[in-house]
Amino acid sequence: MTALAGITNTLDARGSAWGDYDGDGDLDLYVVNQGAGQANRLFRNGGSANHWLVVILAGRASNRAGIGARVTVASDGDQIREITGGSGFASQDSLPAEFGLGSWGGPVDVTVRWPSSIESSLVGVAVDQAIMMTEPAPDLSRATKGVSADATLPGETLTYTIVVPNDGDWSAPASVTDTLPAGLAWGGYLTATGGTPTWDPARQRVLWRGAIGEGAAVTLAYRVTVDWGLVPSTTITNAATVDDGYRPAFDTPPVTTTVLCRELSGASFEYEPVSPVAGRGMTFTAMATGSLPVSYEWDLGDGGIASGAMTTHTYDVARNYRVTLTATNDCSHAVVSGTVAVMPAVGRSYLPLVVRDLP
User: Fold this and answer.
1) Domain membership flag for residue 358
2) Any residues with CB less than 8 A from the CB of 1 and at least 6 apart, and which?
3) pLDDT tens digits, residue range 99-153?
C-alpha cells in the first residue's frame, strides 16, 4: 500500500508526522529515519480535485495552540477533529485541524468547543482555504483598586474601591478576593454593583462572586478603620486578587496609604486613692489620645520626677501639691496640671492595758 501511495522508504523509520506543509489542502508526510547516514524523508502529496478546509486555532482563555479543542465541520455530514499534543513516537502531527470535504464545494459551518468549555462558531464558511478561529475570552486585565486617601490618621476611616471591567468578548464567571493588611480593621460597610459581596471575618477578607458580561464592569466598595496603634510613616499597601474563571488569577496594581501623625488630645491624669494620705503610696495614671508612641513626664509637686504612663509616689507631708503631666508624641505635646490634696495620717488610739493579780 505504501508503494501504491508513492511512499518508498526502506530505511529504519521511527517517527512520522502529517501536515499540510505546502498549503494546498492535502496532508504531506514527514518520516524520521534512525541511524548514521539515513536521511529523513518528506513525501509531498500531489493532491486531487477534492475540496478541503483547514482550521487554525488561537487559544486565549485556553492554551495558545488550542490543544484539547474539538473542531466540527458540517457539510453534507459532520466531521470532527480533536487537537492533540502528541500523535506518535518521537513525532507530532501539525496542530491545525484539516478536513477533506470530497465533492462538497458549498459553504460549511464550523464549531469549536474549547478546553475552557467556551464554544464559538462560524456559519457559511467558503471551502478550499485555511481559516483562523480565535477563542472568545473575557479580559479583566484592567481591574484596579483605589483608596479614598493616600494619607490617613490613626482612627480614621478609609474606603477601598475595586473596579473590574470586562474588555473581552465573553462573559466572565469572575471572583475578587481582598485580604485586609495588618493595621486595618473591618469598617462594617460593603457594597457592589452586581454579584454577591461578603465579608469573611475568620480570614479578614472581602469576597465577591458574580458574572461580568462582555463590555460590562462591576464596582466593589468597602470601608476599613485605621488602627490607633499605627505609628507615623507606616505604609499600608495591598492589592486585590481577580480571577476570570479561565486563566490564572492575578493581582490588581497595589494601592498605598501613609499614616500621618495625629496630634494629642484629651490629655489628663487620675490618681488612686482619690483621698491620698501622707506617708502612704498612691498611683498616678496618664491618658491621652493621639499617634503612638506617647511619652509621659511627671512633676509631682514635691520635687519628685517620674516618667511613664503610670507611676507610684508617696507624699510625706500633708498639704496640697501641684502635679504637672507632660505628654509628647512625634507631632505635638500637651501639658495638664492639677492639685492633689494629701490628708494627714489618722493616728491609732489604744486603750491602756491594766494587769491585775488574780486572787
Assistant:
1) no
2) none
3) 999 999 999 999 999 999 999 999 999 999 999 999 999 999 999 999 999 999 9
